[in-house]
TrEMBL record:
Transmembrane segments: none
Biased composition (Polar residues): 1-10
Species whose genome carries this gene: Fodinibius roseus
A single BP term in Gene Ontology: response to oxidative stress
Protein name as annotated: Osmotically inducible protein OsmC
One Pfam family it belongs to: OsmC
GO MF entries: peroxidase activity
InterPro entries, per database record: KH_dom-like_a/b, OsmC/Ohr_fam, OsmC/Ohrsf, OsmC_Ohr_Peroxiredoxin, Peroxiredoxin_OsmC
Region called Disordered, residue ranges: 1-22
């Protein structure tokens, strides 16, 4: 059973400090600040990384569910919009927006499978305390 790892370091106080986040694989290392997290400052933030993880996991889960139902997806593209309410100090919503190219499937079946993938995705399960919505489009 693999254990994936990431590291973060924060220097200084919340408003004027800065930090770095890094994946053990070396595929990502980025800077973050108060402004990049709570405003529109330059740099990354934890919510952006959560969104990337969720979009990636959901895309794989949907592809797997489609395949398991006898459909062969050509592509699944997902964007995750993670809403951070800084006044509450919590992520209040994650909106998954996905587009898929899947031959020989009807819209209702596709949406049903997509909803199942949203519920079954390991990252969705980890974030279950958050309101997760799905907008699924069949191309």
């Amino acid at each position: 059973m693999p254990t994936k790892k990431a590291n973060a370091q924060w220097n200084g106080d919340l408003k004027s400090g800065n930090g770095t986040m890094e994946l053990e694989s070396g595929s990502y290392k980025g800077n973050y600040t108060f402004a990049s997290r709570f405003e529109n400052g330059k740099g990354s933030n934890p919510e952006e990384l959560i969104g990337a993880a969720h979009a990636g996991c959901f895309s794989m889960a949907l592809s797997n569910e489609l395949d398991g139902a006898g459909y062969e997806p050509k592509s699944v593209k997902t964007k995750a919009e993670v809403t951070l309410d800084s006044s509450k100090g919590e992520i209040t919503e994650i909106k998954l927006i996905t587009e898929a190219d899947v031959p020989d499937i009807d819209e209702d079946t596709f949406r049903e499978i997509a909803e199942g993938a949203k519920e079954g995705c390991p990252v969705s399960k980890a974030l279950a305390a958050t309101n997760i919505t799905l907008e699924a489009t069949l191309n």
